[in-house]
């Protein structure tokens, strides 16, 4: 009796397709044996942020999916990435990755020339002493930073509202003056 045993291996293939606004397929990229758990697009629409399980964040160009930057979770964090966020929206300079064990990893991104000199002030503001810092139990710090940012946003909103109110008042005065002028012209 002869028996052949064949080991069947399943290959995990993830396919990402990029379409333009007209619905025309622009590019398709396949990832074999990589567990892509999250995909995000940069605000400019030129970069794709891929979260590859268990702990890799890969930044690729949208046009050809060439990897331009890759970040690995620190070796002492074995927990998979559960969420990523990058920002601020105006100029992406920071990636925050949350892990299933509750760890938060902050990664400052380099400038276009590869330097991080521009980020020194941001690093000081966030209390990050190195390019990569593990932060555990700092929910209070994050809340304080969020409240400070919210306070600044409220002040800007209030100022904008005041300016808009003044502009509306001036516009009303101009319209009233113009209508008065037209009435006088029609009577005279």
Write the layout of secondary structure elements.
Blueprint: E1 13-19, E2 25-32, E3 36-41, E4 47-52, E5 56-61, E6 67-72, E7 81-87, E8 94-99, E9 104-108, H1 120-126, E10 132-135, H2 139-187
Antiparallel strand pairs: 1-2, 3-4, 4-5, 5-6, 7-8, 8-9, 9-10
InterPro entries: WD40/YVTN_repeat-like_dom_sf (IPR015943), WD40_repeat_dom_sf (IPR036322)
Could you name the key traits of this structure?
188 residues, alpha+beta, 4-stranded antiparallel β-sheet, 2 helices, 30% helix
Kindly describe this structure.
The protein is α+β, with helices and mostly antiparallel strands and 188 residues long. It has a domain at 138-188. The chain is 30% helix and 32% strand. The strands form 3 sheets. The chain has a 4-stranded antiparallel β-sheet, with no helix packed on it. The longest helix has 49 residues, at 139-187. The radius of gyration is 27 Å and the shape is elongated. It starts with 12 loop residues before the first strand and ends with a helix. The model is unreliable at 1-6 and 129-137 (pLDDT under 50). InterPro entries: WD40/YVTN_repeat-like_dom_sf, WD40_repeat_dom_sf.
